[in-house]
Every structure is written in structure tokens, then in C-alpha cells.
Amino acid sequence: MNIALPDGSVKELAAGATVADVAASIGAGLAKAALAGKVDGTLVDLTATVTDGATVEIITAKSPEALHIMRHSCAHIMAEAVQELYPGTQIAFGPATDDGYFYDFELPNNISSDDFGAIEKKMAEIVKADEPFVREVVSIDEAKKIFADQRFKLEHIDDLTDQEISIYRHGSFVDLCAGPHIPSAGKIGAFKMMKLAGAYWRGDATREQLQRLYGTAFFKKSELEEYLHNLEEAEKRDHRRIGREMDIFMMRDEAPGFPFFLPNGMILKNTLLDYWREIHKKAGYVEISTPMIMNKQLWQTSGHWDHYKDNMYSTVIDEEEYCVKPMNCPGGVLVYASKPHSYRDLPIRAGEIGLVHRHEMKGALHGLFRVRCFNQDDAHLFVRPDQLTEEIVGVVKLIDSVYQQFGFTYHVELSTRPEDSMGSDEDWEAAEAGLRTALEELGMEYEVNEGDGAFYGPKIDFHLTDSLGRTWQCGTVQLDFQMPQNFDLEYTDADGSKKRPVMLHRVCYGSVERFIGILIEHYAGKFPVWLAPMQVKVLPVSEKSRDYAHKVADAIEAAGIRVVVDNRDEKIGYKIREARSIDRVPYMVIVGEKEAEEGTISVRDRTNETHPSTIEDFCAKVREEIRTRA
Fold this sequence. Notes:
Elements: E1 2-4, E2 10-12, H1 19-26, H2 28-33, E3 36-39, E4 42-44, E5 55-59, H3 66-85, E6 90-91, E7 101-106, H4 116-129, E8 134-139, H5 140-146, H6 151-159, E9 164-170, E10 173-176, E11 190-200, E12 209-218, H7 221-236, H8 239-245, E13 249-250, E14 260-261, H9 263-282, E15 286-287, E16 293-295, H10 296-302, H11 304-308, E17 313-317, E18 320-324, H12 329-336, E19 348-357, E20 373-383, H13 388-405, E21 409-415, H14 425-442, E22 447-449, E23 459-465, E24 471-480, H15 482-486, E25 491-492, E26 498-499, E27 502-511, H16 512-523, E28 536-540, H17 546-558, E29 563-565, H18 572-581, E30 587-591, H19 593-598, E31 601-604, E32 610-613, H20 615-628
Parallel strand pairs: 1-5, 15-19, 21-22, 28-29, 28-30
Antiparallel strand pairs: 1-2, 3-4, 3-5, 6-7, 7-12, 8-9, 9-10, 11-12, 13-14, 16-18, 17-18, 19-20, 20-27, 21-23, 23-24, 24-27, 25-26, 30-31, 31-32
Helix pairs in contact: 3-4, 8-16, 13-14
């Protein structure tokens, strides 16, 4: 058999051994670190037997899957602790998640976060005992005997079609589980209980209500401490709180999921859109606007009705059914189809900042991150096949420049054909090849996200990393052979024949509203000067300097800088603290009697240092920061 080592090398070994034997044969240090294995790409337990000709990959703490495996094991440890502490507990499901793990329980008495300390103490005792995770394969009848006192597990067993079932034992705990797990509890690193919530059995509101306990785990204590610090920092940066404090946006019960942008929010939003329009004009785009409501037949032709109708709002006009657009693309197609095109006209790059509406479940709504209406900074490119690679490269470079402007790093995923798709195998293969070619020409590293493309074509997704290391999927480039075919789009080629254009869908911001929410948290509300709704706040020390403060503000405003005067009868220290912590303003201009007499100003920036300046020099400095979008 072949053994893939963590360093990428391959080693030969005789068949018939277990994965643990394979690990041991490579070296004691590696064997000690091994968590599980992959046999021909499938995750398996260390006790799995390796067949002849198989390829084995040893999973260690440095492998991408390792943290997930360890957290899954930690979920079992938490369930074991809960069962020991609260006899009579019924267990449901307990998977690992991106951030940790959870387990659902029906407890004799509900617990609270006050009980977390006792649960963590019991978990620590179990980890210290370092007992092994043992996998067994049993029949359905045997499984029913093992879980005779666990009614949720019995119900789950009844749904299984396999005649043999995998279970895992650890200490006093046993669970239905496909695995794999770490060899023993001692390999679990630092863990912590995080929160609890309610959950229905199998997500069915008509069934039993359970308690869901969340936890997290890392291999190192320092990693857990960093994670907890970032959580605390994320709470401080919550865009809903900062948005309220800075008067950027609000939500109302009268319009759940439909954000209201306040004056400061409109300044921020329009500044982003002005930047968008500027860079798109330079890149050869034209801007269009399409109707918000169009008839149902259009959405049937585009394919959205069959694939997306559950998320669409509809209405009846003149006894005909109409839909509120969830996407801008069919409108862009109609603009293209409104007149004949020659091969010389292509590529056509049509941008649209279109307001779209999508039905989201009430429980999924979350500030600006998940709303029911938002502006999509769409563009639809209609290109000849020979222009495809060049245009995709141009789009990727444009998106890259946008993210660099805001200080984001990102990684790229190529998302391929989903199960719910339209079009021929040949079209999909050609579309995916087109995107791969463009990425390779750019020399850009990417991951393949199998089955996550749009229903009409594959896509390149950009996942931003913010200042806290969190990732957000924003930009995308989608290649579409289907919609031009559905709407019978054409152009006249050089030889006079009719040809079908290829359509590219793409966004930079994605949802403008969501992007604003991301920026608020990325900058913690401390926007760069060009974006800040309030760029300068003038603070008179007392009533005696108030008239001079307004003269200063008039001069700053005349220089094209956004400025506000704090006229309140408050102490200067209070005004400074509020300007710094609530308004998060880039610059404070403090004026007292001395400044009024000398015709100068005192400038306080985000370093909290104050220095004297003339009004002219200060305005020149700020204008340059705005001009260069520093």
C-alpha cells in the first residue's frame, strides 16, 4: 500500500495492517501524534484495517481535518460528563462545528450557564483519565439493546437502513457514531463551555424541546485564549451596536429584515457607491437600472422560478402574476436583447446597483448581514467566447483592487456544478474550464468547492479575511451559458453568422448593506477619513469660543470636508470622550480662547495626541487623505 506522509512524500508498506500500525511504522513521534487516517480519501478510525492497494494518509494535529476530529471527540466527552452529572439524561445529536461543537440533551432538570463550571470540571477528569475511544460494529438488534434507555437513539436506529451500525464507547459513554475519533481522551487540548440554547428534536417544532450545550476546543491553550479574545473583540465590534451609536442604520419591528439607513449611513453608502462608479467607469463599464417588479414569465424563462421561487416575493398586477426581483440578471439580459449587436460591440460591461428582495426566515435575520432587501452591486458582461479569459482576468483584477483598498486579504474558491442545475454536461465542462484557465493565467491559488456553483453556471468566490481573522464570502464571478440560451441572445459575427454570447455575472461588494456591516466590524467603526460619515468634529472649550468654532467649521466645510460642531454645554473632556468612543471621528479640532485669539486650531487624531495647526494646513492634509483614499 501507499502511505502519504504529512510532508507530502509517499512510502510503501505491506497491506493488512491497521491505520495505527501504519502510523507506528513511520515513526514513534508521528504515531504518538496521529489522530486518525484517510484510506483512499475516506476518513477512518485508527483501528481501521487497510486493504491491499489502498492509499493511507495519516491525520496528525497539523492536518486540516484534525481540529474537527478532536472537537467531535470533545462533544462525546461533554455528553459523558453531562450523563454522569445528571443521571437520566436523554442524548440526541452532537456534531463538531466550524467553531467548536454542540450536543442536544433532554435533562431531568434544565441547567444554566452557572452549571458550566461543574461540567468543565468533570470533563477535565475524563480527559485526564485518558481512556481510549473504541469503535464497535453491531447489528440493529444489538444497538437497540445497547440504547434501550435512550429513546432518541432508538428512533434514530429505526431510520437506519444498514444492517450493521457503528458505535463508539468511551468510559461510561456510548453513542451511535460514524467517527472517526482521536485515539484517547488525553489528546484533547484546551476546551471551554460556551453557551446553551433551546433546540427541537430533529428541528421539528412539534417535537420535544431539548437543551443544546455549545463548547469549543483547541489543541493549544494559547489558541483557545486567542479565540476567546477575538470573540470578546467581535462583541465590541458588533455592527448592530456601532451602527446604532453612530446613527448609521436602524431596524424596526414594522419592517423586519428591511434596514433603514440614517443620514450618516447614507453618507457612508453613497461614498462607497461613488467609489464603485469611479473605478467601473475607468474599467469600461456602463451603468444601467432595471425594474424592481417584472412578470412571472420572465423568471420562468430565466430559470429562477424553478430554482428560487421559495425565496421570491410576488404580487398580482392586472390579473397577472409579477415577481419582485431577487436578482438583477434577467433585467440585464432584457437590456442586451433590446437591440441587435455586432461582434464589434462586445464585450458589453453593464453595471447595476439594483435593489433586490429575497425572503429570509425570520430567525435567520441578523443586522445588515442577513436582510430581506439589499442593493447588489451587479455587473453583467456579454462577451464573445474568444474574449472570455481576458474578461474574467479583468474582473478578478478589479475585485482584487477593491479589496486591497479596504485592507482585506482573501482566498479564492472555484465552485462547481450543483445537483440542482440547468444545462448540458458539455456547457458545464466548458464553463468550469474557462474559469480554471483564467485563474491559472493569473497564477492565483484556489480551492475547489465541489457542487456549490449557481444553478446556471460555475463561479469563482472571494472569501475576505477581516481584522479579526473571520472570513466573509463577498465577491463572485459566475460564468453562464444558460441564460443567453434561454433568452435566445445573439450577436452578428464577422462572417455575418449569428452567434451566442457568453454571460458573466459578477459583484465586488456583493450586498452593499452586508459589506457595510463587514466594514463596520472590520474597522470597529473607525473608518478611514474618506469613508467616515463625520470626518472632523469641532469642539469649543466653552461658550466664549463657540463663535470661533463655527468660523473654523465653515472654513473646513468650504474645503470639502465633512464637519460637525459640538455646541453642547458639556465639559471638554466629555466631548472628547464621546467624539472618540461614540462618533469614532478621525479628527477632533479643539478651540478655546487661546486658539480664537491666535486664529489657530488644536488637532487631536486617533493617536490621542494633540498638536497645533493652522486651518489651512489642516484642511490641506485632510483633503489629501480623502483624495488618495488613504
